[in-house]
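Page 42, continued from yesterday. The earlier attempt failed because a stray header line got pasted into the input along with the sequence. Redoing it now with the clean sequence only.
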Amino acid sequence: MLTSTPLASLTFFEGHPDIVRDVRSNCFASLALMVWDSLLTFGDEVEYIWPTPRISKFKCLYLFLRYINLAALTATAVAISFLTSGSASELTCRIWFVFVVFIGQFSSTLTEVILAVRAYALCSRSRRIALFLCILIWSELITASLVTLGRARGTRASFGTVCLLIDLPKKTLFHAIPLLITQTALMGLITIKSVLAAQAGWGRTPLVSLLMREGIVVYFAMLGFLAFALMAYIQRDDRSILTVFWFTSIMSIFGCRLILNMERLSRKLSQERMGGSYPAFTTQIELE
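This time it went through. Structure tokens are written below.
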């Protein structure tokens, strides 16, 4: 474990300048990706998100995923030089760790909520399915919170002088189990209902095709992150914290695009059926 002394800080910088450089560059790169996507989708946001009622749940989800996460990544980018300077105290490192991990977890949870609403709609609004998905998502969130807080407060937490995580304990990977179960359940429900819809003759509609396609993309992206985290642990890679930066950015982008794509399709279907009337929001779409 590294100690928070000037000598330890100097030794770390001399021996691991590449680690400090990689963490800083990935922090800015993940922020740049999110800003770039925000600019690309700003026109759709103005057209499909802003006109919706203030109490819309999906509007709140979108604004959180887009702007709260953007503010969090910006704040991290501003502070990253100090956090990796060797001057930050261990308490600061612990607080920063909890902050960035919770932002990433909330991004993942909100994206799962969006997918869960879609699966719920595909399953004819079954209360059993809704209860099952709620239990999975809440279990994942609680597990992640306990693991994160335990990691930050535990005596075995080894924060170096540049706020990098050194020697991640095995229990940190336990969070991957409920995450994998939740994502697999969501993907399984969407896939099964899509196949049944295809057999019934309406599975090739634009709505079902959209749900299926985007569910697959999010699922395999999650698998990619889990595989990367597992490899980082096996190799004892001190750069593992940069996974959180990219996870937050990409989950925010996925969540926002899930909502935008659904609203765009909703507007199109509403105009076709009712001659251009105001679009139904995502939760109002009925699958028969």
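Notes: The helical segments are 6-15, 17-49, 57-83, 90-122, 127-153, 176-200, 206-234, 242-274.
Reminder to self: strip header lines before submitting.
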